[in-house]
Amino acid sequence: xxxxxxxxxxxxxxxxxxxxxxxxxxxxxxxxxxxxxxxxxxxxxxxxxxxxxxxxxxxxxxxxxxxxxxxxxxxxxxxxxxxxxxxxxxxxxxxxxxxxxxxxxxxxxxxxxxxxxxxxxxxxxxxxxxxxxxxxxxxxxxxxxxxxxxxxxxxxxxxxxxxxxxxxxxxxxxxxxxxxxxxxxxxxxxxxxxxxxxxxxxxxxxxxxxxxxxxxxxxxxxxxxxxxxxxxxxxxxxxxxxxxxxxxxxxxxxxxxx
Length: 258
Hints:
One of its GO terms (cellular component) is ATP-binding cassette (ABC) transporter complex. The chain crosses the membrane at residues 30-48, 60-78, 108-133, 142-166, 230-250. By secondary structure, the chain is an all-alpha fold. 78% of the residues lie in helices and 2% in strands. The longest helix has 32 residues, at 60-91.
């Protein structure tokens, strides 16, 4: 068997293992975001939405749907990658991959792609939940698919960095709860940028989540407050940079060797 065949076979085996790891545990993977988003839609969409009525010309419950999808998708992509890498380091079974004939790019590709898959699946679950509360359509399917793929791959790559950097499980919790989620909540999930003072509008543009939420919102509703083409281009370049960094860190053994 050639080296290329071994690499493809190893990539598929590692990818399959990582996907099955979360698919076989639906209570951990799908039940928590299901319950959380039912609460989000019930409280923010139904109860609060009746008071707010419309934002940017669309019903409030429909306005927050893309943001909640982004929140679920990026959180799960990041969490899956960071936990998988750190857990493999902690129990030392990541050494099986490191000593295999797999190339570093194939290793990173398997971890990133499997984590992005979890993010997309959770995003789809949130969209299905939203469909029970309001009518959901897709205005720009190309942008919706493109943004969902890019943001989940980006945060899966960031999760790999987090998993290599973390020293214990508390570090993983800290990154998710105190860095990732605040960025999402201040990224225009529950409000329009036009509704806040100009100073805060300009500050919000420094938050990358603003571009992700607006990109997915443009895919669903055809409504956005930032240029979707520019956002998609910048996020794609950032994703390629982060995944490239993952390969460099694996090659140097950062966090993988004592």
